[in-house]
Amino acid sequence: MNRKSYKNDIENSDIRLKKILQMSAFLSLSVIFQIAETFIIIPFFLPGIKLGLANIITIVVLYIYGTKAAFKIGLMRVVLSGILRNGLGINFLFSLMGMLLSVSASSFLKKSNRLSVVGVSIGGANFHVIGQIMVASFIYKTNLLYVSYLPYMLLVTLITGSVTGYLAERILKRVDFEIF
Amino acid sequence: MLNMILNRKGEVSLKTPLLGTNFFINIYDMVYILFIIIISISLIVFGKFFIDKGSNRAIVRYNGKEIMALDLRKNQTVFLLKKDYPLLLGDMEIEVKEGKIAVVKEKSPYNYCSLMGFTGESTRPIICQPNKITITVENGKESSGNNQVDAEVR
After folding, report:
1. Could you tell me what percent of chain A has a pLDDT over 90?
2. CA distance A139 to chain B (A)
3. Which residues contact A56 (CB under 8 A, 6 or more apart)?
């Protein structure tokens, strides 16, 4: 093995290690956010309204490491917070479906290169709600939720998605992830 | 208050005095937000046309299974007891008053379903997810469910 390829190997392993460490930090933060926000109760006639703080991490990971990493972090976050809180029951299904649609939509909107970070975050929040209502409609055997809850929830997510998107944009601008 | 200003790149600058900083959303974001607002308003208007004005009964389901049909024309209070429905987090009180129904007392982490208040509209079901109870308002002459209900009616 010559000296140049050895140096390259060392650099590659350093980059891989840095990525693993960063992803672990992101995962821990997203689990903490997901569990912490269940203690923030928004007294409103619509059940299940949350700020979606974990969405900040999903957006940051999506912009730094791409779609695959965002899916991995999202999936691990949903499973871990499910195990740590209520077990893998109906709440887990709500979170899982919401996360899958949210990351898919955010990724699609990001790839379109048209929307800003705030727009991508709003799209993710919208589809998170759509995913949850799809599960609820299936479980409770009613399609009425699409007209009774969805429009109001979509309007609320315009606000929550903007807030999380704004915070994600600030993090992406202020934190240098190359040296972090 | 948000002050909207178009900058040279065609981006909309939202000045946020509270945060003391600027952030950018572009014209495509604005179009997307407008699209979502239009969709939401359309769904709300669509829902209003689907409200069943002649709804006269409420179907109560426990864990996905219909357990009773309540006549909304008759004021009544129904108690679902934890001993009869083990998945409930505590005893539940359902009240029917002036053609509307509400869960007035229940035990759950955030009490969302009692927060919802009274509903007499088919598009506003009551969902008590932690207690596995759903209440939907429907129109029907007679109950299709099991009338041998294990509940106390007062």
Report:
1. 32
2. 7
3. A33, A164, A167, A168, A171
